[in-house]
Amino acid sequence: MPRTKDFDILEDPDRLRFLYHDMGLTMQEIASMEGCVDSTVLSYMRKHDIERRTKGVQSGADSINGADAGYSGSWSSAKRKVRDRDNNTCQSCGVSEEEM
Predict the structure, then answer these.
(1) What does the alpha-carbon distance between residue 54 and residue 31 come to, in Å, rounded to a whole number?
(2) What tens digit of pLDDT does each residue of 57-93 get?
(3) Which one of 24, 50, 53, 84 is separated from 17 by 20 to 30 angstroms, measured CA to CA?
(4) pLDDT at 72
């Protein structure tokens, strides 16, 4: 069955690497941006030979704000844009920030 969705971020190895390694986004956060599941992101990372972060390395999502984990100020901006776009609602389970 042919794929019906274009994955602009996932098909661009430089952009995917930037979001994952430089911005510190998790696979789940990238999947939310693309409207897919994190296993799809992992498949593309393998396809592009993008190494996964070492377990235990703190990502931007795991800190109070991205700057705490050593990420640039653009982390907070990217995180806010995604949350605004998704109306502060998890794209995996549908729970809103207010419901948490």
Answers:
(1) 19
(2) 545 444 444 444 455 556 677 777 888 888 888 777 7
(3) 84
(4) 55
What are the beta bridge partners of residue 96? 89
pLDDT of residue 63: 42
Q: Which position has the token pair 């704000």?
A: 65
Those residues whose C-beta lies under 8 Å from the C-beta of residue 87, and which sit 6 or more positions away, are: 96
Token pair in block for residue 86: 């998704």
Residue 66: both structure tokens together? 């991205």
DSSP output for 68-82: GGT--THHHHHHHHH
Q: What is the C-alpha to C-alpha distance for residues 37 and 26, in angstroms, rounded to an integer?
A: 12
Q: Classify 55 as helix, strand or coil.
A: coil
Question: What is the spatial distance between Cα 56 and Cα 34, in angstroms, rounded to a whole number?
Answer: 25
- Which among 93, 100, 81 is positioned nearest to 38, based on CA atoms? 93
